[in-house]
Amino acid sequence: MSASLPHSLYRSDQVRDGERKIAADLGVEMYNLMELAGLSVFDTMKERWPDAESILVCCGSGNNSGDGYVIARLALEAKMSVTLVSVADPSTVVGDALKAQQKFVAAGGLILQGILPSDNYDVVVDALFGTGLSRDLSGAYLLAVNTINALDCPKIAVDLPSGLDADTGHVWGEAVIADCTVSFVGLKQGLFTGKARDHCGDILYDGLGIGEEFAAHIPASSTLLTLSLAAELEPKRKGCVHKGHAGRVMCVGGQKGMGGAIVLSGQATLRSGAGLVAVLSDESHVPALLARQPELMTRWWHESETIETLRGVLAWADVIAIGPGLGRSAWAEKLFDTAIASGRPMVVDADALNLLADAPKHNDHWVLTPHPGEAANLLRTSVIEIERDRFSAVKELHKRYGGVVVLKGAGTIVYDGCTLSIIDAGNPGMASGGMGDVLTGVIAGCMAQMLSPSASANFGTYLHSYAADIAAQEGERGLVASDLLPFLGKNIKQMQR
C-alpha cells in the first residue's frame, strides 16, 4: 500500500486484460488478488478510522463486489458489526466473486438484498461497480448511490467510486462521493481529471504484488505529472548566464480598457525566468503597467501604422504570448495574424483562441491553453461534450490545431501528440479571474529558456498549479492570480520548503 502514487496511468481495458496476463505469467491466482485487494481496503479503513465498529458494505454483481465480500468477511473476523447489502440478486454472482461471497456466508455473514438501510454506520464501503460502467445509473443502483452519499459517515471506494468512468472521469448521472479511494495494480486515468476530483477523495494505490511487473510490460496511456517528474523538467542555469541567454518574450494583448490581463501575463513571464519581457498593448495602459512592474518594457501599435512596423516590433521577440485581454476588434485581428505570420514560437490563450476558432490554422510551434469553454469553441461543440471525455477532446484539439494543447480545468491535461500528462497539482481557489493569464506568461517564460514547447507546457503548467497550492495554504477563498507571482521564481526544492 502506498500513498505515493505511480506516474503511469492506464485505461480500464489495459488494467483488466493486463492484470490477468501478468498474474498468469507470475503464476498468481486471480482470486488471490481479490483477497489482497479486500485486505488492502480493510487495512486502509482500520488505519484511517481506527474507532470504527460498524460498517455498511454495498455490493453489486461483478468482481468489485467480490472485493466487498472479502472486506466484509475480514470485518466479521475482526468482531465488527457488518451490514452487507447486495443491490444485485446475489444468485447472479459468479466466478471469483462467488467464491468470496461463499466465504463471507461461511464466516457467518448475512446478505441483505435490495434497498440500502439509512441507519447510522461508522464507515461505508462502496463495492457496487468496477470499471465496466458505460451508461447512466438508474433504478436500484441510482438509489443506492444517492443513499450512500446521504449517509453522514466516511466512505471508502474499492478501486474507483461507483458511477465514475475509469477512463474519462465522467460521472454517469451520479457517483459515490468517497473520502478515500484505493486503486489496484494500475491507476486508472479517469481518477485524476474532471469531476473525478469531486468524488475520489484521497487516492491510494496498491499493486497487489504484481504492480511493478504490470508497469514494466503494459505501456501507460497517460502520465501523472507529479512534483518529482516536474523537478526533472526544471530549467537549469549556468553560472555565466546573462539576460540574453534567458530569452526575449513579447506579451501581446490588452485592448483599451482590458490591460490587467496582459500585465499579469507579463509579470508571470518575468517571474518564471525570462531574460527580457516586453508588453505590446494599447498605449493607454503604459503608465499603469510601468507603475505595477517597471522591469517590463512597453510597446504599442496603432492601426494607422503599417503592418511592416508591427512586424518589426514583433521581430524582437524569441517567443510571443498572445491573447490575454486582446479582444476581437480589427486591431486584435491584425496583431493576431501578424504574430502568427512571424513564425515565432507562441503561447495562444484567451481571445486569441477565439480568433483562431474563427479562422482555424495548424502550427507545430505553439502552445494552446484553452479552458473547456474555449475548447468547445475551437471544436465547435459544447462544454458538456468536452468535459464528458477530456482525453478525447485534447487529442482532437491537437489533431486540428497542432502544437501542444493544455486543456485547463480540474486535472489539467497536457498533450503534445505523443504523451498525455495530467497535472497532479492545483486547487479550487484557482477559480478566479486572471489565473489563465498568469499561466500564459509562465509557459512563455519557460519557452524562452527551454525552447521545447512540450517541456515548457508541462513544467510551466505544473509550476503554475503548485504555486497556487502554496499560495492557498493561507486559504483558498479569495485567492487571486497575483498571489502566485512571488512563488514562480523559486525552484521546486525552495517551493517545497
TrEMBL record:
<feature type="binding site">
    <location>
        <position position="141"/>
    </location>
    <ligand>
        <name>(6S)-NADPHX</name>
    </ligand>
</feature>
<comment type="function">
    <text>Catalyzes the dehydration of the S-form of NAD(P)HX at the expense of ADP, which is converted to AMP. Together with NAD(P)HX epimerase, which catalyzes the epimerization of the S- and R-forms, the enzyme allows the repair of both epimers of NAD(P)HX, a damaged form of NAD(P)H that is a result of enzymatic or heat-dependent hydration.</text>
</comment>
<keyword id="KW-0630">Potassium</keyword>
<dbReference type="GO" id="GO:0005524">
    <property type="term" value="F:ATP binding"/>
</dbReference>
<dbReference type="InterPro" id="IPR036652">
    <property type="entry name" value="YjeF_N_dom_sf"/>
</dbReference>
<feature type="binding site">
    <location>
        <position position="64"/>
    </location>
    <ligand>
        <name>K(+)</name>
    </ligand>
</feature>
<feature type="domain" description="YjeF C-terminal">
    <location>
        <begin position="226"/>
        <end position="495"/>
    </location>
</feature>
<keyword id="KW-0547">Nucleotide-binding</keyword>
<keyword id="KW-0067">ATP-binding</keyword>
<dbReference type="GO" id="GO:0052855">
    <property type="term" value="F:ADP-dependent NAD(P)H-hydrate dehydratase activity"/>
</dbReference>
<feature type="binding site">
    <location>
        <position position="162"/>
    </location>
    <ligand>
        <name>K(+)</name>
    </ligand>
</feature>
<dbReference type="Pfam" id="PF01256">
    <property type="entry name" value="Carb_kinase"/>
</dbReference>
<keyword id="KW-0511">Multifunctional enzyme</keyword>
<comment type="function">
    <text>Catalyzes the epimerization of the S- and R-forms of NAD(P)HX, a damaged form of NAD(P)H that is a result of enzymatic or heat-dependent hydration. This is a prerequisite for the S-specific NAD(P)H-hydrate dehydratase to allow the repair of both epimers of NAD(P)HX.</text>
</comment>
<keyword id="KW-0456">Lyase</keyword>
<dbReference type="GO" id="GO:0046496">
    <property type="term" value="P:nicotinamide nucleotide metabolic process"/>
</dbReference>
<dbReference type="InterPro" id="IPR017953">
    <property type="entry name" value="Carbohydrate_kinase_pred_CS"/>
</dbReference>
<keyword id="KW-0520">NAD</keyword>
<dbReference type="InterPro" id="IPR000631">
    <property type="entry name" value="CARKD"/>
</dbReference>
<feature type="binding site">
    <location>
        <begin position="130"/>
        <end position="136"/>
    </location>
    <ligand>
        <name>(6S)-NADPHX</name>
    </ligand>
</feature>
<dbReference type="InterPro" id="IPR030677">
    <property type="entry name" value="Nnr"/>
</dbReference>
<feature type="binding site">
    <location>
        <position position="325"/>
    </location>
    <ligand>
        <name>(6S)-NADPHX</name>
    </ligand>
</feature>
<feature type="binding site">
    <location>
        <position position="261"/>
    </location>
    <ligand>
        <name>(6S)-NADPHX</name>
    </ligand>
</feature>
<comment type="subunit">
    <text>Homotetramer.</text>
</comment>
<feature type="binding site">
    <location>
        <position position="436"/>
    </location>
    <ligand>
        <name>AMP</name>
    </ligand>
</feature>
<feature type="binding site">
    <location>
        <position position="159"/>
    </location>
    <ligand>
        <name>(6S)-NADPHX</name>
    </ligand>
</feature>
<feature type="domain" description="YjeF N-terminal">
    <location>
        <begin position="15"/>
        <end position="216"/>
    </location>
</feature>
<dbReference type="InterPro" id="IPR029056">
    <property type="entry name" value="Ribokinase-like"/>
</dbReference>
<feature type="binding site">
    <location>
        <position position="371"/>
    </location>
    <ligand>
        <name>(6S)-NADPHX</name>
    </ligand>
</feature>
<dbReference type="Pfam" id="PF03853">
    <property type="entry name" value="YjeF_N"/>
</dbReference>
<dbReference type="InterPro" id="IPR004443">
    <property type="entry name" value="YjeF_N_dom"/>
</dbReference>
<feature type="binding site">
    <location>
        <position position="126"/>
    </location>
    <ligand>
        <name>K(+)</name>
    </ligand>
</feature>
<keyword id="KW-0521">NADP</keyword>
<dbReference type="GO" id="GO:0052856">
    <property type="term" value="F:NAD(P)HX epimerase activity"/>
</dbReference>
<feature type="binding site">
    <location>
        <begin position="408"/>
        <end position="412"/>
    </location>
    <ligand>
        <name>AMP</name>
    </ligand>
</feature>
<dbReference type="GO" id="GO:0110051">
    <property type="term" value="P:metabolite repair"/>
</dbReference>
<comment type="similarity">
    <text>Belongs to the NnrE/AIBP family.</text>
</comment>
<feature type="binding site">
    <location>
        <position position="437"/>
    </location>
    <ligand>
        <name>(6S)-NADPHX</name>
    </ligand>
</feature>
<dbReference type="GO" id="GO:0046872">
    <property type="term" value="F:metal ion binding"/>
</dbReference>
<keyword id="KW-0413">Isomerase</keyword>
<comment type="similarity">
    <text>In the C-terminal section; belongs to the NnrD/CARKD family.</text>
</comment>
<protein>
    <recommendedName>
        <fullName>Bifunctional NAD(P)H-hydrate repair enzyme</fullName>
        <ecNumber>4.2.1.136</ecNumber>
        <ecNumber>5.1.99.6</ecNumber>
    </recommendedName>
</protein>
